[in-house]
Design goal:
Blueprint: E1 2-6, H1 13-24, E2 27-30, E3 46-50, H2 56-64, E4 67-73, H3 76-86, H4 115-121, H5 124-130, H6 132-137, E5 142-145, H7 146-151, H8 153-164, H9 172-178, H10 181-187, H11 207-216, H12 218-223, H13 236-254
Parallel strand pairs: 1-3, 1-4, 2-3, 4-5
Helix pairs in contact: 1-9
């Protein structure tokens, strides 16, 4: 069994990878580029994580080496806020999609209300990253909505098992108990696992900023049916205060 997790960054890819590794007793790999893997020498049972556009060449490669695809979808506004936090701790974000559309250096000291973040979130780099999941979504039977994985993990993982059409070696409930968000958070040293709760963007993005991002990437929101209902009472001052409250503990733990 060979699985490829291919989605937009910060969509729960590593969490899903660990769950599938436990579920099916697989070896795991992660790469920034297609060329970063020795495809000929991959284990017969493995799960690989990659952020990449859907192209005929990549699909032919996956078919040649017997890979089933798994794709995750997370609310784009949560993805962008997560990128804003993660980029402060992980310089390798610059390697996502081989740097297409730029990188994250302009938002390293930004907050969700800043001009730097809004420029990034409405620009070419964010567009390139957010479009990865929609490219794969309709063509991939094994699909995971991040919020469902958080709120209904057993049912969500059971649907993935059904789509992959192979019996797991570890029961779904046991895999979920073994691979918890809190355990992964303690394991990571680069703040890879931060908060993990869906709709956290509603406490950090003002209505004006949220709607501006939606307008910039309307096709992404429409294709996967994302709903955007910001907190109309949220001011910049309140959003900055929430950001500081969230940021300080993580900065302290990273020190």
């Amino acid at each position: 069994m060979r699985l490829l997790i291919v989605s937009t960054p910060r969509s729960g890819n590593m969490w899903a990878r660990r769950l599938l590794r436990r579920l099916y007793d697989l070896e795991e790999r992660s790469t920034h580029t297609v060329e970063g893997l020795d495809w000929e020498r991959l284990p017969e049972r493995c799960v690989v994580q990659l952020h990449a556009d859907r192209t005929p060449d990549l699909e032919q490669l996956l078919d040649r080496y017997g890979f089933q695809r798994v794709v995750l979808a997370r609310h784009p506004l949560d993805v962008l806020v997560s990128i804003l936090h993660f980029a402060r701790h992980e310089p390798e974000t610059a390697q996502w999609l081989e740097g297409r559309g730029g990188d994250e250096h302009t938002i390293l000291d930004a907050d969700p209300t800043s001009r730097a973040f809004v420029r990034y979130a409405t620009g070419a780099r964010a567009s390139a990253l957010l479009h990865v999941t929609p490219q794969w979504w309709e063509t991939t039977p094994a699909r995971i909505r991040y919020r469902n994985l958080v709120w209904q993990p057993t049912a969500t993982l059971a649907e993935v098992v059904e789509a992959l059409d192979e019996q797991p070696r570890t029961p779904v409930e046991r895999a979920i108990d073994d691979v918890t968000f809190s355990t992964l958070k303690q394991e990571a040293r680069n703040q890879h696992f931060w908060r993990g709760q869906p709709d956290g963007w509603r406490y950090l993005l003002t209505p004006r900023i949220a709607h501006k991002i939606v307008r910039a990437h309307r096709d992404v929101f429409d294709e996967l049916g994302w709903v955007v209902e910001p907190d109309e009472s949220l001011s910049k001052r309140m959003a900055r205060a929430h950001w500081r409250e969230l940021l300080v503990p993580s900065e302290t733990n990273a020190a």
